[in-house]
C-alpha cells in the first residue's frame, strides 16, 4: 500500500507496469480495484497509476460537499507529487467528470483522454439530493441494491452473483460522508461549456446496458469534443472495466498507442 499527502489529505495510490504513463480515476462508490482486471492487461505496455478518489477506498474522506474542481486539484496534486508531467488520463463516471475538468483546464498535462460511462452532466439535482438524504439517513448500504442494478448488465447479475455481491460490498463499505460529498460534486457539475476546450484525442466509451449514463447521453458528450471517437462495449452496464475488462483494455491500449505521449 502506498500513501501520499496531497493538500493535507491522505491519498491511497498504486503504480504498476512500465511504459507511457496512464492515470485512472474511479467512479462513485468504488475505488482503485475497479481497474485491477484492466491494469493487469495493460501493465506490460503502460505505467499505470491508480488512486482512490477523495472520500473513497483508503483515501481520506473529509466532510463535504466536494466539487469537481477540487477533485481535479487532488489528481493534479498527486501527479505533481509523483513528478508525472504529461499522462494519458482515464476517468469513469464521476472520474470522467474530473478527467474532463483536467483536460479542459490543463491541456498540457493530458496526452490522450479516455472517458468511460460519463457525460458533461450526470443526473438531475433532485435525484442527487434524494440520494444524499438516503445515505445520510441510512449509510451507503441503504442505496446499494438499487445502485448495483444500474452498475451491471442483467446477464452479469444472473451469471456472476458472487462477483456482484463483492462489488456491492465495495459500495456499501464506502464512507457515507465521502459518498454523499461526492454526490454533491456530481449534482453541481455541468461541464458542457468546457468540452470545447478539450483538445486531447479522446476515446469516449459506454456499456450498452448502462442505466446511469445511457449510451445516448454519453454520445452527446462525445459529439461536443473535437477529437473524439465513440465506442459502445457490448454486455456491460455502468462499469465496463469490471464487467468487460478485456474489451475495455483493448480499446484503451489501441487509443493510447495511436496517441503520442
Ligand atoms: O451510482 C450511480 O448511479 C452511477 C454513478 C453516477 C456517477 C458515478 O460516478 O457513478
UniProtKB/TrEMBL annotation:
One of its GO terms (biological process) is beta-ketoadipate pathway. It comes from the Bacteria. Residues 21-241 form the AB hydrolase-1 domain. InterPro entries: AB_hydrolase_1, AB_hydrolase_fold, Carboxylesterase_BioH, PcaD/CatD. It holds the Pfam family Abhydrolase_1. SUPFAM superfamilies: alpha/beta-Hydrolases (SSF53474). Signal peptide: none annotated. One of its GO terms (molecular function) is 3-oxoadipate enol-lactonase activity. This is 3-oxoadipate enol-lactonase.
